[in-house]
Recover the amino acids of this structure.
């Protein structure tokens, strides 16, 4: 059983138009709406693959009700709403089909009262006590800086219940969350560079960054996602670089969250980090091959999984050698695959 925590969800609306001209009145013939937010994307992928996933989130107003409806009816995710006085935000993306360009407009998140913050913590505890949660993920930012220590608090609580925790955030929320020693961290390269306040251009610099999280903050697994270049991951003793095959990218949004879902699955099953890197990169890559977030084709996933290359990195000279080990069959990692294939 998985639990995703999304403090700042949204209605994620995309309007499709031929081309954008400022000042014009532009009529769209097509639009799409999903329950957005990084943690919701993780839950959507897990549920799509056949796993049970609960989604804990702050929601408010009619937009919050729509987020809950979409999660429950469209994504088959089990939402755990904590209601706020102010409405859930909407993110509107304008996609120009002629030039393949996206422009996103972000509304501010809701303000969070001390009582709403308390309600979130209590709901988290209640969930851990009543549900058999193995892995909890903490994704994205908080909507109100008064709640910046939320991840720090929740991760500390999760450890008391023996829950595996994965932190995927940035900024102050990430810094505070690190203080509670999450089991795993997964910033992307840009977020890691922001954290260290410097460019991490070389493999040596990136591995040093991974080690910093393990040595200073005592995390067990440290990962930096690299977009189309896959990810780097270590447990402090072995280092791997998982690289996806070249694809025709359609929409990369949510690919980092699909990657995280792969890690969550492998941690729950106690697989080595090399296996989690292969599965995570395959899921992230398959996600980027179609428009809908977290609802990729199984054919693409199977094809990509077989082509992901995992390199073992020599920490002394930074040489990378392809890891020669037999792949764990995808239908063992994701049992629902066999039903898709029938």
């Amino acid at each position: 059983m998985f639990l995703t925590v999304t403090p700042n969800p949204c209605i994620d609306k995309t309007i499709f138009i031929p081309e954008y001209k400022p000042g014009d009145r532009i009529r769209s013939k097509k639009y799409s709406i999903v329950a957005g937010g990084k943690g919701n994307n993780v839950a959507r992928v897990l549920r799509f693959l056949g796993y049970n996933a609960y989604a804990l989130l702050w929601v408010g107003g009619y937009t919050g009700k729509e987020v809950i409806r979409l999660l429950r009816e469209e994504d088959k995710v089990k939402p755990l709403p904590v209601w706020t006085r102010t409405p859930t935000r909407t993110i509107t993306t304008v996609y120009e089909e002629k030039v393949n360009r996206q422009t996103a407009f972000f509304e501010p998140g809701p303000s969070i009262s001390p009582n709403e913050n308390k309600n979130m913590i209590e709901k988290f505890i209640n969930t851990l006590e009543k549900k058999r949660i193995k892995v909890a993920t903490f994704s994205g930012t908080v909507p109100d800086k008064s709640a910046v220590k939320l991840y720090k608090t929740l991760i500390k609580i999760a450890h008391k219940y023996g829950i595996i925790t994965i932190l995927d955030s940035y900024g102050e929320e990430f810094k505070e969350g690190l203080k509670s020693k999450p089991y795993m961290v997964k910033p992307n390269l840009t977020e890691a560079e922001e954290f260290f306040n410097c460019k991490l251009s070389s493999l040596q610099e990136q591995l040093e960054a991974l080690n910093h999280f393990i040595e200073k903050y005592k995390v067990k697994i440290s990962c930096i996602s690299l977009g189309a270049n896959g990810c780097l991951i270590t447990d402090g003793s072995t280092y791997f670089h998982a690289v996806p095959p070249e694809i025709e990218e359609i929409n990369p949004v949510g690919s980092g969250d699909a990657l995280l879902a792969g890690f969550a699955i492998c941690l729950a099953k106690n697989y080595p980090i090399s296996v989690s890197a292969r599965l995570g990169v395959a899921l992230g890559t398959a996600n980027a091959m179609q428009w809908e977030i977290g609802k990729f084709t199984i054919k693409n996933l199977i094809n990509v999984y077989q082509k992901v290359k995992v390199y073992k990195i020599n920490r002394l000279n930074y040489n990378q050698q392809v890891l020669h080990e037999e792949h764990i069959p995808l239908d063992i990692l994701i049992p629902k695959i066999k039903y898709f294939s029938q």
Summary: The chain has a mean pLDDT of 94.
